[in-house]
Automatic annotation (TrEMBL):
A Gene Ontology molecular function term of the record: ATP binding
Domain of life: Bacteria
Record InterPro entries: AAA+_ATPase, ABC_AA/LPS_Transport, ABC_transporter-like_ATP-bd, BCA_ABC_TP_C, P-loop_NTPase
Keyword Protease: no
The entry's keywords: ATP-binding, Nucleotide-binding, Transport
Record-linked Pfam families: ABC_tran, BCA_ABC_TP_C
Domain ABC transporter: start-end pairs: 7-251
ATP-binding listed as a keyword: yes
Protein name listed in UniProt: ABC transporter ATP-binding protein
């Protein structure tokens, strides 16, 4: 962990019709941290995430990534700068195998995607090596030849994480990585997210509803409520914050904390 700021969102506002989905929200993500973005349903998390990653243009505010203003930059240019992301809805190809899905990501990043058919020589070896590395990192090597649709949800999620790594990011944005997963699968993915930082030295920003996961994984937590910034702090501060507790009242997610 360092003091350097990897990502900075400054007074972001995004309006849909009359709804201020995100209203003047600022946040900083420090390099080498695991940072969670939380909030009750409809708080504006996905919209804020989209503004950061270039899938929604904010009406106001600025997004800086590695010190560069990326607010109006196309999504693919942010990816080229080192911003990787996964989506709430799966962005993988269910009928293709795990290997093929990851290979697509690696080939696209290496600019080989437009070349139909097999690669040869050095280009093929480089792609093979990277695919093997990513499969090993998410522990899916033994399932590489299975169509993704046949795998457990947790393994599908791991394949998505591997695909987000295929672009060699320094910052990984994960949109609800645990959604719909059983507890054992959740633990498996938590281990991989910890390894993103420990073994790969990456910075992670994730949106998550599962408070057990958030409190155990995150170094910092930003809380949104009805489009506004409600609180920001370390897990213990957030768990004890009365405004956060009231925002979640009735949802039961903080009851056991
Ligand atoms: N494309 C859109 N058009 C109109 N309204 C939208 C659009 N996207 C989001 N909204 C509205 O903006 C607000 C914030 O939505 P958003 O999906 O960002 O919240 P969220 O915190 O991610 O919610 P959840 O936890 O349920 O996924 C909601 O009131 C939502 O209905």
């Amino acid at each position: 962990m360092s003091d350097a700021i990897m990502l900075e969102a400054d007074s972001i506002t995004k309006v849909f019709g009359g709804v201020r989905a995100v209203d003047d929200v600022s946040m900083q993500v420090r390099e080498g941290t695991i940072h969670a973005l939380i909030g009750p349903n409809g708080a504006g998390k996905t919209t804020f995430f989209n503004a950061i990653s270039g899938f929604a243009m904010p009406e106001h505010g600025q997004v800086r990534f590695k010190g560069v203003d990326v607010t109006r930059m196309m999504n693919w240019r942010r990816v080229a700068m080192g911003m990787g992301r996964t989506f709430q809805t799966p962005s993988v190809f269910p009928e293709l195998t795990v290997d093929e899905n990851i290979r697509l990501g690696v080939r696209a990043h290496a600019n080989h995607a437009f070349r139909l058919g097999a690669l040869r020589g050095e280009a093929k070896r480089a792609v093979d090596t990277r695919v093997d590395e990513l499969l090993g990192f998410v522990n899916l090597a033994d399932q590489r030849d299975r169509p993704l649709a046949e795998l457990a949800h947790g393994s599908q999620r791991l394949c998505e994480i591997a695909m987000s790594l295929s672009t060699d990011p320094v910052l990984v944005l994960l949109d609800e990585p645990m959604a719909g997963l059983a507890e054992a699968e959740t633990d498996r993915i938590m281990g991989v997210i910890r390894d993103l930082r420990l073994r790969l030295g990456l910075t992670v920003l994730f949106v998550e509803h599962n408070m057990r996961v958030v409190l155990s994984l995150a170094d910092r937590i930003t809380v949104l409520d009805r489009g506004k910034l409600l609180a920001e702090g370390a897990p213990a501060e957030i768990a004890a914050n009365n405004a956060v507790r009231s925002a979640y009242l009735g949802e039961g997610v903080l009851d056991h904390v």
